[in-house]
Amino acid sequence: MKHITFYLDFISPFAYLAFEQLPEALEGLSYSVDYKPVLLGAMLKHHGLIGPAEVPSKRTWTYRHVLWLGHAHGIPIEMPATHPYNPLPHLRLALSTTHDGTVSRHVAETVFRDIWRGGAEAGDEGRRAALAAQLTIVRDGAGDAAKAALRANTDEALAQGAFGTPAFEIDGRMLWGFDSLPMLRAAVQGDAWFEGPGWTAADQRPGLQRPNKP
């Protein structure tokens, strides 16, 4: 049996789509999954990146693209009334259901669907309170332990080379994106390609070096 760590941030529509598609993508295979919430904003900051929603034309394309992907794959999806929004309360809420940094698939599904189905305001406190009522809370999501778990998950993902969500760790390798699900299936199947130069040497070549600005 192969083990997958799925790093996710509920703000990411691609993470939502990948989460919904994962069972079908890996159908018939033997695997287990740890679902770990991370803070995408902190990951982007670490790498000196900005989110796609911060580039107006890319924001438009991203939203159209994710709605198309949902349509094409039969995954219900509607944009929240406001996006991007602050995902921290949802991340901490999810982590309030566990004593470590891993949440159940049920918890992740409940939070994802509350945000990405129905087109409502994700940041509304009343809706978030109703969402919390659907979950079994075992610790304070605003407490130090839940905050530390989110930091630890994010640091763990970064240490393994993650730069966004969804990110999948399997056998010490990091895969990224909704469109990597076929690749993830191959990794679970033990495809020998991952031992060859396509994986091991793809980046072993010089690249353009930009001159330092005076």
Structure in words:
By secondary structure, the protein is an alpha+beta fold. It has a single domain (2-200), classed as Glutaredoxin (3-Layer(aba) Sandwich), CATH 3.40.30. Helices cover 45% and strands 10% of the residues. It has helices spanning 13-25, 40-47, 56-73, 88-95, 105-116, 125-133, 144-159, 181-188, 197-200; strands at residues 2-8, 31-37, 167-170, 173-176. It has a 4-stranded mixed sheet, with helices on both faces. α1 (13-25) runs parallel beside α3 and α1 crosses α5 (105-116). The chain is globular and about 50 Å long. The mean pLDDT is 95.
Summarize the structure.
By secondary structure, this protein is α+β, with helices and mostly antiparallel strands.
Topology overview:
Elements: E1 2-8, H1 13-25, E2 31-37, H2 40-47, H3 56-73, H4 88-95, H5 105-116, H6 125-133, H7 144-159, E3 167-170, E4 173-176, H8 181-188, H9 197-200
Helix pairs in contact: 1-3, 1-5, 1-8
CATH topology term:
Glutaredoxin
Assess the beta-strand content as a share of residues: 5-15%
CATH hierarchy, class: Alpha Beta
Radius of gyration: 18 Å
Strand order of the largest sheet: 2-1-3-4
Uncertain runs are none
Give the strand tally: 4
Number of helices: 9
CATH architecture designation: 3-Layer(aba) Sandwich
What integer is the average pLDDT? 95
| Tally of domains | 1
Largest sheet: 4 strands, mixed
* Principal-axis shape: globular
Distance from first to last alpha carbon = 54 Å
